[in-house]
Amino acid sequence: MFGEPGQNRFFAGYFQSCAQADFECSALSTSSPIIGKLREVCRRVSEHARGPVGVIGMCLTGAFPLALLGDGVQAAVLCQPTLPFNALFMRPIGAQRRVLGLASSDLDRAVKSRIAVLAMRYRNDALCPAERFRTLRETLRERLAQIEIEDENGEHSTLAGDLNLDAFADAVNYLKVRLGAANRPQRMKLAKLEGRPCEIGPDGRWRRL
């Protein structure tokens, strides 16, 4: 999806992705065309595994899991969703800060799925502003548990380059329950539901503690 295998050029990867027809990086309420291809991948994986699958989105793909929910996809982790952003400033500006870079039809799909979702960001991350997480809360309400990490050393990538181990543990425990690998409640280390500590119950729903 991003450039050539073995490529390790951060900014080049951004511009290559946004210059291609598969990604829509700046429009406010338009889904990237590649989402249609990813739906087919998820469908085939679920059929092959004969069970549910989980999707983790990061950065450019951060909000994509919302558009993939339903059918075989029964778990979604949204990590620092970055779209849309302004290519000149290399960050979201203005109205871009409040939207998720998805078409209304894809957001409706996410809302109708009723699936519990986990989202995370570093609190000082300019690429994934607080306003975007506020939109997530308003859209998903009690179905959304959020992690906002207070860490001066953390910059952007919660589960990769700037890995936070507690956020990683929360993601693993969430996926275990949602995908049927655990049948007991899993208490979150960092994630909060409506501002309070929470757990993911054996029914796959968030519960405040």
Q: How would you describe this structure to a colleague?
A:
The protein has 209 residues and is of the alpha/beta class. The chain has one domain (10-208): Rossmann fold (3-Layer(aba) Sandwich), CATH 3.40.50. It has helices spanning 10-19, 34-49, 64-68, 104-113, 130-140, 165-178, and strands at 53-58, 73-79, 117-122, 144-149, 186-193, 196-200, 206-208. The strands form two sheets. A four-stranded parallel sheet has the order 1-2-3-4, sandwiched between helices. Strands 5-6-7 form a three-stranded antiparallel sheet, covered by helices on one side. The radius of gyration is 16 Å and the shape is globular.
SSE diagram, text form:
Elements: H1 10-19, H2 34-49, E1 53-58, H3 64-68, E2 73-79, H4 104-113, E3 117-122, H5 130-140, E4 144-149, H6 165-178, E5 186-193, E6 196-200, E7 206-208
